Amino acid sequence: MDAKTFDKSRLVSRHVTEGPSRAPHRSYFYAMGLTEEEIHRPFIGVATCWNEAAPCNIALNRQAQAVKLGVKEAKGTPREFTTITVTDGIAMGHEGMRSSLASREAIADTVELTMRGHAYDAIVGLAGCDKSLPGMMMAMVRLNTPSVFVYGGSILPGRFEGRDVTVQDVFEAVGREQAGTLSACELEKLEKVACPSAGACGGQFTANTMACVSEAIGLALLNSSGAPAPYESRDAFCEASGRAVMELLARNIRARDVVTIKSLENAARVVACTGGSTNAGLHLPAIAHEAGIRFDLLDVCEVFKSTPYFVDLKPGGKYVAKDLYEVGGVPRVLRMLLDKGLLHGDCMTASGQTMAQALEGVEGTADGKVIHSIEKPLSKTGGVVGLKGNLAPEGAIVKVAGMTGKEMSFEGPARVFECEEDAFEAVKKRQYEEGEVIVIRNEGPKGGPGMREMLSTTAALSGQGMGKKVALITDGRFSGATRGFCVGHVGPEAAVGGPIALIRNGDVIKLNAKKGTIEVKLSAKELKARRKEWAGQRETLYGSGALWKYAQLVGGAKDGAVTHPGKDGERHVYADL
Ligand SMILES: CC[C@H](C)C(=O)C(=O)O
Ligand SMILES: [Mg+2]
């Protein structure tokens, strides 16, 4: 691409590079070593979530350099910047987890502000863990600037006692140690080998789920998310992404040309057919919201219903992200969906081609191991299911991948906990009974605040061998590695007086993932009477600061727990400034 083909008068960066009044601005660019020619080329923000918080992000800096090479090859001027992350694997199981979902908004906001403040013309965004992937994609759609997303790649699996393991095994081993079926010494051995490299958690947990989404939604180049983080072969995709964003800029193809209701449906398909993370039920509505598109939890779940589950990945299944990559990765899965009429082929993608064009020549058959055939799937409907009923009028979500038909319904008395810590303590001490439905409330977006993931508690149950003998419901969330009958995102949340706030110990709860129902056996009259007696939102520890601010602004899980109201999606202006 020749820089001359860019009409500067339509580039946002003209505000910082052109005309006599911008001499001071240019002097800053000279200070950073840019040449006159580079200053007058398009400015491409290269946003990364690099930091030393977790293995998920540690390889992003290397990959950003490759992106910059690609941008330069295509005669753009890359400007690298970083934003924050909060990494669930380390935030899990304590107060820190409240910062996780709020970090998604902080990432979107900081990327937006950096791009606006410096008038960059387009963006390549690199992200490596649960909240940074959706946060980065939200910023792209919010800015509606030419955008290419690059995933940082998955971690390699660890080896323990002759089998592949991930951090999920370590979380579950904590429960086994509590139950006395694993020694402290064995636990220590496992923790040392479970995570052998850079990269995000290895199963189809939240990061890898959202990485599949990035390709399916069209913001990332096909197959770019597949190679594990330590593979330097990733860098070729990074370079290509740098070149691709220049092509999008030249053709004025922006994020909202890519992210449409159809591409959101494509994204939901890939979540369902891979048994992805329930968090997608939160992040897809949030990404849609940035485009002013209504695609809520229940809409996502409608797509799940008509999607077969045929890719066998952990935690419901057997394999890890590296295995999927080795048999053809996300493009192969997308091609199979397309051939069966389950994917919209006319959506625009980051390559500048439509999805169908980009998938031309891609192998579209099962490999029989990781990817099963669509005719003989692992199950006929998606690995993730939406539920609705008098206990969750705004819906709820459960991962059913790996569950048998019989296991998909559950009825039992409630054992109610007011927060995760209380539940974890009770689980640790085995103060619960088989057949019960554990209720953890006050963990919603507003009431937590921060809608914590509760992998420590759910993994402890699995590790104790009780994962299939109890069910768990919450207005909070689960990690992508959670398994068992664990229903999250129950809405409305307790903090706003949702029915989950009204449940008492012993109330009978009925869950049916086949029918998509979640009910408490209480009459409407009884619920109404209890609501009158309800004491109101439980006080939180956060009277000021970021989490207080978050709690004031955040909306319900059904709409993606976003922090700015509906109409903003339509009013945002960036690239036209
Ligand atoms: C292992 C699970 C990971 C840390 C996570 O939080 C997720 O996938 O959501
Ligand atoms: Mg997570």
UniProtKB/TrEMBL annotation:
Pathway: Amino-acid biosynthesis; L-valine biosynthesis; L-valine from pyruvate: step 3/4; Amino-acid biosynthesis; L-isoleucine biosynthesis; L-isoleucine from 2-oxobutanoate: step 3/4. The keyword Lyase applies. GO terms for biological process: isoleucine biosynthetic process; L-valine biosynthetic process. It catalyses: (2R,3R)-2,3-dihydroxy-3-methylpentanoate = (S)-3-methyl-2-oxopentanoate + H2O; (2R)-2,3-dihydroxy-3-methylbutanoate = 3-methyl-2-oxobutanoate + H2O. Residues 41-357 form the Dihydroxy-acid/6-phosphogluconate dehydratase N-terminal domain. InterPro entries: DHAD_IlvD/Edd, Dihydro-acid_dehy_C, DihydroxyA_deHydtase, DiOHA_6PGluconate_deHydtase_CS, ILV_EDD_C, ILV_EDD_N, IlvD/EDD_N. Residues 369-561 form the Dihydroxy-acid/6-phosphogluconate dehydratase C-terminal domain. The keyword Mitochondrion does not apply. Its EC number is 4.2.1.9. Binds 1 [2Fe-2S] cluster per subunit. This cluster acts as a Lewis acid cofactor. Residues 1-21 are annotated as: Disordered. The modification N6-carboxylysine is found at K131. It comes from the Bacteria. Residues 1-10 have a biased composition (Basic and acidic residues). It is an enzyme of class 4 (lyase). The active site is at S479 (proton acceptor). Mg(2+) binds at D88, D130, K131, E453. SUPFAM superfamilies: IlvD/EDD N-terminal domain-like, LeuD/IlvD-like. Gene3D superfamilies: IlvD/EDD C-terminal domain-like. [2Fe-2S] cluster binds at C56. GO terms for molecular function: 2 iron, 2 sulfur cluster binding; dihydroxy-acid dehydratase activity; magnesium ion binding. Homodimer. Belongs to the IlvD/Edd family. This is Dihydroxy-acid dehydratase. The lineage of its organism: Bacteria, Pseudomonadati, Pseudomonadota, Alphaproteobacteria, Rhodobacterales.
